[in-house]
Amino acid sequence: xxxIEQLLKDIEASPxxxxxxxxxxxxxxxxxxxxxxxxxxxxxxxxxLSPQELVQLLRAMSSFxxxxxxxxxxxxxxxQFMRGIEEQAYRELGEKLYYKQIARLIYPESRALVExxxxxxxxxxxxxxxxxxxxxxxxxxxxxxxxxCTHLEVSDGAFTGGVVSPTCFGQGxxxxxxxxxxxxxxxxxxxFFYSDSQDDLLLLxxxxxxxxxxxxxxxETIAHDRRWPVARFGSRGxxxxxxxxxxxxxxSSLVTSFIAGLPIYALTGSKRxxxxxxxSLFADTASxxxxxxxxxxxxxxxxxxxxxxxxxxxxxxxxxxxVAKLLRKDIAGVGKQEIKKxxxxxx
Length: 347
Fold this sequence. Notes:
Blueprint: H1 4-12, E1 21-24, H2 36-46, H3 51-66, H4 71-80, H5 87-102, H6 108-119, E2 123-127, H7 132-142, E3 146-148, E4 152-155, E5 158-163, H8 171-184, E6 192-195, H9 201-206, E7 209-213, H10 217-225, E8 230-231, H11 241-260, H12 262-268, H13 271-290, H14 301-304, H15 318-327, H16 337-342
Parallel strand pairs: 1-2, 1-6, 2-3, 6-7, 7-8
Antiparallel strand pairs: 4-5
């Protein structure tokens, strides 16, 4: 396993100038996890993505993760839900989400690698299957001028619901890198490419200096077999695609659970009965999705005397699921402003 110091020494030993390209993947390589998480959650919060559309999107993402749906087809599902949204507004949203949520996910080690390449005068680029709205704010923060991504179709300033072909995935990344090299006068045989995914195998094979950063199990095996440097950064967590999908589905189930309670309100006229049903449904659904099992001592005290005041220390979004699982019904929350922002239904 290579250390960050060894990777930096490799950069220092490389030739100076733009003839050497340093290409980075984005999700899982520069940042921990997936930038799409923040965007999808925000779309749900704003009402841009309905519960039915969210289910379709999660199904497409799951199919892609299982290998039964191609990347371009998955992007086509995502893009159709963007139809009519103003591109500039979405670009501004991307900048807001970057500084609010995504910036803190950047690996300090990846930032150090970028800075080392820039100091050598290399042609530094991000080539990602994500969209510019996810990647460009990070590139600007890191001082990277070249960004090659998957683009959504835009007409008259608004998204059409289509995807520009070809997408920046697989061979599309190789084509993007070769175009960058031709434009900058770089030699890919002398260039670096950093990635975490076996999906980038074609570009890893194309460059002279492939680097596996925070690799998937499959890429790590390939990298070891081919004697490519492998490094893992411990400064940030890295969820798998399956964990990402389950976490997103659990968060989104709050919305779908409360929608499911609306017919009860319509039939009974009781807001309390509707909320009790929804809160209980959310507790069971979300905990099942993330695989949460609670081992409770003194569970009988939760029901021995009600009404009662329960005190908990809010540390993460999982706390909302835990409280729902424990208390189940007849709940009114009192807490700091941040809880209302994260879970507006409970505010």
